[in-house]
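[scheduler] slot 2 assigned
[scheduler] job type: sequence-to-structure, two independent chains
[scheduler] chain ordering preserved from manifest
[runner] begin chain α
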Amino acid sequence: MHDAALVLFSGGQDSTTCLAWALDRYARVETIGFDYGQRHAVELTCRTQVLARLRQEFPQWKDRLGMDHLLDLSLLGQISDTALTQDKAIEMSAAGLPTTFVPGRNLLFFNFAATVAYRRGLTVLVGGMCETDYSGYPDCRDNTLKALQVAISLGLAAPVVIETPLMWLDKAATWQLSHALGGTPLVDLIRSDTHTCYLGERGELHDWGHGCGACPACELRQRGYRAFAAGQAARSEVAP
């Protein structure tokens, strides 16, 4: 029944892994991104580079990867007072959440994605939300997205499935999933071309990718990659 998917694609590690996951499973896959007035728009550049490389370097997915959609949600940045939309320090707020939390962001993303998906005949929405290695954002939690799936399906009078393949994976397992899907070439693409850093740093290419190495997003990515790499090395040592 569900053979066509729309992937929420930011140009980061998680959404790129989810895009590969969707391409491995669905006959037709489209992507959607959002320009929401984010403080560092470098990810918008990265996403086009990643899409181009996927088309060029992964022939098994080329014919499945369809149209990309980029929506202007700059109003969200105008009404948000967060470290991802304003020049503010990354710290814990009085509400117990990091100042990188953009209230309502994923709720809006999925609702707009569902609108595009409805028009395009796509019945699966795929997002890289995770409740294992994450910053505590309430709109990344499994119960939030299950409730949203019900609300969207009812509101459209059409069945919509929200898939979150990373929900219960830590970052090491996310790297492992990318390797299982596309081997070393996909891992290398994610390392070099995707963007995660909250501070927008694209200077030195570390073993785990570009980034400042100090913000919460970089710390998760770095720790996960090194655990993944250590596991790969251990497996190669015991291989016959």
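[runner] end chain α
[runner] begin chain β
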Amino acid sequence: MNILVTGGAGFIGSHTVVELVEAGFSPVIVDNLSNSNVSVLKGLKNILGQDVPFYQEDCNDFEVMNKIVQKHQIQGIIHFAAYKAVGESVAEPLKYYQNNIGSLLNILEVMKGNGVRNLVFSSSCTVYGQADQIPVTEETPRKKAESPYGNTKAIAEDILEDCIKSGMEMGIISLRYFNPIGAHSSAQIGELPLGVPSNLVPFITQTAAGIREKLVVFGADYNTPDGSNIRDFIHVVDLAKAHVAALKLLDKKTEGSYYDIFNLGTGRGNTVLEVIETFEKVNQLKLNYEIGPRRAGDVEKIYGNVEKAAKLLNWKAEKSLEESLEDAWRWQKRISNL
């Protein structure tokens, strides 16, 4: 099957491209490189021993997307492409609504016009907001999002559900990610944030590499064991494999309309300070960090029940927090020439 991967040069997208090829799929990447780097393509070639078709285009351009889908006879789409920084979304909400919602609507129109049936959508655990009960399940009521970024994911899920309710002949799966970290074990691809990282682990690795003077922990006065936020940190390769599992499930749903949602995580939470301490321990170094004020848009704690993914996708996370942080540091050392 020819699979279009939007945002395929990004962190999760690039790792998913690797898993798709290794599972026998033929991915085609579309990425406007607004939050990624063309060097990722070289890393992919080094891992796979082949080039992956790549288009530096914007998913909001209907004509371009239509031509790519027709040219490659695309049979399924994994839609990663979106802006994803919580803090930036609070400061620039219109940018996030225009891009994240607009690109999804465009993808759906292209699918509808070309008879492309299967879509795997990149959602987020942010749709749960600050849940009353942890761990969250797929049936946990969504709360008002803490950020415009989170709200774009909630709105996108509603759009997808409405499409299926209307009787559109599609199979759609929304994957609610928790916190992807790590890198490919080859250190050929990994997280490559542009500018100041918005995610914890690249900030940790950049601080360890001397790129950042210090790491700021956003708040240590939350109602958690050590006062820092709790998150479910999942290795990006485990997350990538779940997308292949989702496509395989959709491939079995050959008729009618199908929509489902899955949590993707490890099923347990770690505090930010635990992650810092684990990074120091497994990589045998000390980080310069300090406690700062809370950050707008952050929820106190979130981690998920992942039994549904285990049952229906036949998938579960296999890599440990220690492995994730070792891989992340190996990647950082390579790109920093350490």
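[runner] end chain β
[qc] chain β: The mean pLDDT is 96.
[scheduler] slot 2 released
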